[in-house]
Amino acid sequence: MHLLILSRKASLYSTRRLTETARARGHVVSVIDPLEFSLVVSRGRPQLFFRGQPAEHYDIVLPRIGASITSYGLAVVRQFDMMGVPVLNHAVSIARSRDKLRAMQLLTKRDLDIPTTVCTKSTAYLDSALQLVEAPPAIIKLHQGTQGVGVMLAETRQSVQATLESFWSLGQDIILQEFVSESKGRDIRVIVVGGRVVAAMRRTAKRGEFRSNLHRGGDAEGLAKLNPKYAKAAIAAAEVMALEVCGVDMLETRRGPRILEINSSPGLEGIERATQKDVASAIIQHAERYYRTVHGKHRKGAYRAPSEVFEQERGTPRTRATRRKSARK
Ligand SMILES: Nc1ncnc2c1ncn2[C@@H]1O[C@H](COP(=O)(O)OP(=O)(O)O)[C@@H](O)[C@H]1O
Ligand SMILES: [Mg+2]
Predict the structure, then answer these.
(1) Long-range contacts from 20-26, C-beta under 8 angstroms, 24+ separation
(2) Which of 187, 214, 253, 264 most suits a substitution to test ligand 1, by most atoms within 8 Å of the C-beta?
(3) What is the 177 CA–ligand 1 centroid distance (Å)?
(4) pTM of full prediction above 0.70
(5) pLDDT tens column, 54-79
(6) For labelling, which of 159, 167, 190, 213 has a CA lying 20 to 30 Å from the CA of 27?
């Protein structure tokens, strides 16, 4: 198989691990920065150019799209989608997971527990918003933050108001969220690949910090045995977002897992180190299965066409029965 990894740098840990693993399994691997592709859109024919020439053929694309290039990176992934090249993950799924509000909205389609989240554009009804999220204190998040940047804890009504107003004046969209203090700076990160849990770790924030991200100095401990409730929630979250490869962050509470976010390009370094699991191999093996499924060489498999992935964002759950009904109309 000729595998393309869309990544800004071949030397990044996750990119390197995926490249080495795929080569060891006999595949040809190209690592290209998505910014090096040009998109060509003309009547009925989406194309990609690389260094001024039509790009070569790839059998499957693994996007590792960093937050700094989301919009262009996603356009490149979408172009591959449009050209019929299988991508792990679809552009629409990546976009959904990048936007924390959109992700929370989608999670409500399943009976998945999340911290109560409010999005508002004015402080006129701040008191009711604060009541809804049982604040203060409250968590305030940028829609598009990652690695803990853009996640804040506001301890008083005044600081909530001042923070909201500052971000609005900068044109940033934010969400207000219930602060789940009971999890005490700990959370669980689960890697789900092709609908299966492949690794899990518990992260603990450093002293004086509530964010457990490893980039914020958090500690990681591998979980040899993941509570089945957490595994089930992580798999359901990956499914509702239609992500083939993802990291699901959950808070541990007495009432069970509460999902915080789903990451479409989860880092491999922290989790492989903490769990001693070969997550890169799990991803490459899934890419092989996915490729076979797309090409019909394998009957079982989770391949979903982009159109099917799009459909999920509608109001009513699309069961087989409702689909038949709307087809008859
Ligand atoms: N509602 C919350 N209650 C308690 N802790 C939270 C909450 N939201 C986020 N955190 C903490 O902050 C960290 C980062 O938040 P997250 O939503 O995952 O954003 P990021 O994309 O920056 O990782 C989480 O891993 C968790 O430790
Ligand atoms: Mg996170």
Answers:
(1) 20/280, 21/278, 21/280, 21/281, 21/283, 21/284, 22/284, 22/287, 25/281, 25/284, 25/285, 25/288
(2) 187
(3) 10
(4) yes
(5) 999 999 999 998 776 678 999 999 99
(6) 190
